[in-house]
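[09:14] KT: can someone run the structure on this one? pasting the chain below
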Amino acid sequence: GGMTTIAGNNLGPLGSSSHIDYINLTDPRTGAVQACVDPVVTVDDLAVNCTVGPGIGGGWDISMSIMGQEDDGSGAGKWQYQSPSVTSVSPRTASPGTTIFVEGENFGLDTKNISISVVGPGDSEACLGVVCRISRLSVPHRQVVCVVPDSAGENLDIIVEVAGLRSNATDASDFSYQNPIITSVTPAPTQGGVVTIFGQGFGPDGECYKPYIDSIELGDDLCTDALVIRPNAMTCVAPPGVGDNYDAVVTLRGSSSRNTGFGLFRYANPNITGVVPPPTVGGELTINGENFGPETVDGEDVPLVVVWPDQEEVSFGQVQVVRSEKVVTECGVSVAHSVITCTISEGIGANYSANVTVAGLGSRDTGLRAVSYAIPVVESVSPQIQSEVGPTTITITGRNFGSPAYIDQIRVFVDTYEVDRTTLRLWPLQPFNLYELTGRAPPGAGINLPIYVHVGGLVNEANHVNGWFSYTSPAIVS
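[09:31] RB: done, structure tokens below
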């Protein structure tokens, strides 16, 4: 409380006071009336000084009567107590949950009228700062206490609001949060995508506070569309890339995570989801998956592909796995991030494993036993009817029979009758990438029996149009 000056017209001569019947101030929030006592005119007709008791807030109504004549109502909402002011904050740097003491003036007498906020760059009429977890009066009029809320930044201000009146930001109200800390970052897909950054001191969550985020850097690139989803986690959209050991740096209203995120960001490992079987003569190997990186152009960004069978050998009574790699060359990413094509050497069978390495990151076990060579295909059989004179040699024309080097891993059946393996012969037909496989027809009976060629454990599907063989009709000789 104290002396206040009320300006107006027709207030009386200088130094006079007895002609003033009363001056009242009415609180618009409560309707309480407070008399402004000991009035005296300080400027002829224009100004009156009087003394008012303690109070808070603004928008009070002024009413007065002079020699029985009341005012015209023009004083509605025109008087207020002085706004609060901050003279010191201690400590000036703290983390959420810390208690800080704010000294100043005009804080009033009652905690219920006090609200303390941390305000700074990025705040607007829609988001007026973050209110302290606890705001309370500790010394009437002169000291309040704030339990620091979740927020972030440096060179911010502690703003005290009392009954709708707010303190101004000054050097004395300066306050900073401790720097944010990054503890981990989730990998991004190589085509770019959302990552989550975990740590401490990221501030309040939600769209309202997105302006608090100055930048998120991943290596030399910016991570865009950043959003705090909780005080210890934030998301952003990483750009396309490959590799690992990138530095992550978060800056929130001037406060940087510094070196706490160095080396913590990487792109996801390649992931093999499927492999198109290559022909047994060798040729194109197509690997489908994720996180293979950008399309290969002019020999740049070439992935490393290794394919091998796990073969077991017994040595001195111990079973050992022997790794013998296939020859894989000319690899490149043919569809960005999702398809790799290579040239692979000849082979047969299934359960080969593959590993894709992109910028030092491997596909781990996603390619275990993922590669098989193409299954045999029987195009035609000649002759299709058993000879009535002597043994019949069957000629099977088709694809994916392997090469003559694999003849000991080929088995041929007429339905369930196996061809004598010692009679099998294989040679290529050029230039059609076909092979002819011959063997002596086994003893058997029946007509239109499918021919099955087993190569390295893989077998063709029955060709009931051209891939069959019939035995001659039974005959009784005695």
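[09:33] KT: thanks! The chain has five domains: 2-70, 85-177, 181-261, 272-367, 377-469.
[09:34] RB: yep, looked fine to me
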